[in-house]
Amino acid sequence: RQARYAALRDVEPFTKDGERINLMINAGLRDDVPLLNLTGADGIGLFRTEFQFLVSAALPQRDRQTRLYRDVLDTAGDKPVIFRTVDVGGDKSLPYLRAEGENGDENPAMGWRALRLALEREGLMKAQARSLLEASAGRTLNVMFPMVSEPWEFDAAKAVFDAQIAFLRGRRKVLPEQIRYGVMLEVPALAEMLDVLAPKLSFISIGTNDLTQFLFAADRSNPKLAERYDWLNPSILRFIRRVIRTLAGQQIDITVCGEMGGRPLEALALVGIGIRRLSITPASIGPHKAMFRKIDTRELTEQMELWLNEPVGDLRGALTEWADERDI
Ligand code: PEP
Ligand code: MG
């Protein structure tokens, strides 16, 4: 496996028409981070901090969190890392945090989880903010909040960071050189408010795993529905295309970080609607690099426009044929 990663490590994902596609990895454990250099990815577009919480028997203490984040940044070197604050609850329940709400949630995916939980468990959020700030002393901190549904939730989460910054400044501690804030776009309601929120953000990351389940009201962990909602569905692609259009002209990075972007045809479709940044499973980095070098984005964009404006019945079939004809 290592050899396969290494073979394409130094290949740069430039398309035939010279577009650079930014390919980053999703990670969550210390052991994932070396894959960054092994695959030659551009960074860690999604570091799921809850993994440390999920593999611990008790709430990880602040110094343990700080150590992990610092190690990750050290290993990543010059490459950016986007830390997502804890996304627990839903399909990721913690035995030691099973408090009010969660157990009683009949529908935990849309229940008391992620930022909703973190904002109420203020101690948890404060400790994580302090850890991230301390670990990023003198460097850039990229922090992202999960399951933001309304702009005020971003403001509330950022306020926790602002308070910790003030505290550290009071103690004359070294602060991050730069802090970039972002949100996951995975609750459809937020898409309607993006123009309002975007000026406060450096980036958004579209979480297609949750976005799909909420867009279609289809539980992501229910195997009976797994085959039913194809990611190559015009609703999802039109939705993402509209987000890109809403944000056109704003200084904001747009990444897709759900599993969708790791699949070849889905990645082609995403690039065809204007996505240039993908955060994906490390195993897909090499194959994606090789694939993108064979495409012309202008041709792909024109084709996707046609297919989305007057939706073809079988976009997967059409795109497969398109790719086959071009030996992609
Ligand atoms: C997503 O929802 O698409 C996502 C990337 O986050 P997670 O899978 O951790 O919920
Ligand atoms: Mg999610």
Could you walk me through the main structural features you see in this protein, from its secondary elements to its overall organization?
There is one protein chain. By secondary structure, the protein is of the alpha/beta class. It is built from 16 helices and 8 strands. Strands 7-6-5-4-3-2-1-8 form an 8-stranded parallel sheet. 40% of the residues are buried. Magnesium ion binds next to helix 10. Belongs to the PEP-utilizing enzyme family. This is phosphoenolpyruvate--protein phosphotransferase. It is found in: Cytoplasm.
Summary of the model, kept short:
The protein is an alpha/beta fold and 328 residues long.
Mean of the pLDDT scores? 94
Q: How many helices?
A: 16
Shape: globular
Order of adjacent strands in the largest pleated sheet = 7-6-5-4-3-2-1-8
Radius of gyration: 20 Å
Attached small molecules: phosphoenolpyruvate, magnesium ion
Per DSSP E runs of 2 or more residues, the count of β-strands stands at 8
Structural class: alpha/beta
Give the uncertain stretches in residue-range form.
none
Which oligomeric form is depicted?
Answer: single chain
Termini separation: 22 Å
How would you sum up the major sheet? 8 strands, parallel
In helices, the fraction of residues equals 40-55%
Strand content: 5-15%
Q: H/E element string?
A: HEHEHHEHHEHEHHEHHHEHEHHH
GO molecular function, one term: metal ion binding
Keywords: Cytoplasm, Kinase, Magnesium, Metal-binding, Phosphotransferase system, Pyruvate, Sugar transport, Transferase, Transport
Organism: Croceicoccus marinus
Protein name: phosphoenolpyruvate--protein phosphotransferase
